[in-house]
Amino acid sequence: MNPLSRLFTPGEQRILLFLTGLALLGFSARFFTGGSQAEVDSLCVTLEQSDLRVDLRHPALEDLIALPGIGESKARAIVQYAENPGFSRREELMNVRGIGKKLFEGMLPYLIPLDNETAVEDSLLLVDINRAGVEDLMTIEGIGEVLAWRIVGYREKNGRFHQVEELLEVDGIGEKILEKMKPEIILGE
Length: 189
Prior knowledge:
Blueprint: H1 10-33, H2 37-47, H3 61-66, H4 72-83, H5 101-107, H6 119-123, E1 127-128, H7 134-137, H8 145-158, H9 175-181, E2 185-186
Parallel strand pairs: 1-2
C-alpha cells in the first residue's frame, strides 16, 4: 500500500510528483550547465561600473556598450563618428543616429569633458520651466503631455515660477515627480 495515500488524494499525489520532478530537473540543469551565477556576476559588474568614463576622442567599443541604453550598433556608430568627423563637444553625440537628448543626458555622467567644455555647458541641457514649451517639458523625467500642458497653463495663469517647489501646486505633480524633475530643470528669468 502507498503510504502517501493516507495523506494525499490521488490528484494531490500527481501534483506532488510533478513538482518533485520539476525540482529535480532544475537541479540537474544547474549541475550540468555549471550554474548561471557567473553570468549574473558579470552582468552585475557591467551595471555597477560607476567609475566607467568614456573619452569621445578615442572611445572603446566595450566601454560604450556598457553605458545605459547603448547597444552594439549605437556603440559602433559612435566609434565611427569619433573617427570621422570626430567629436569636439560631448553634445555632438546627438548627431549620431539613435542618440536623442534623453539618451545623451543619461550618458553624460560617464563622458569625460572634451577640450574647452565646462559644467556650464552641461546646464544648457536643463529645461527652463519658466520658458519651455510643451515639447521641451515632455523631455523631463516623469512629465507627459498632460502634465506639460498643466505646467504651461499654471505658468500662464500665475506667472513665472519663483521656486521649484511651486510645481507642487500644479495638479498631478507630487513629491515623487518633483524629485525626479529636479535634476533636469532650472528656474530662468
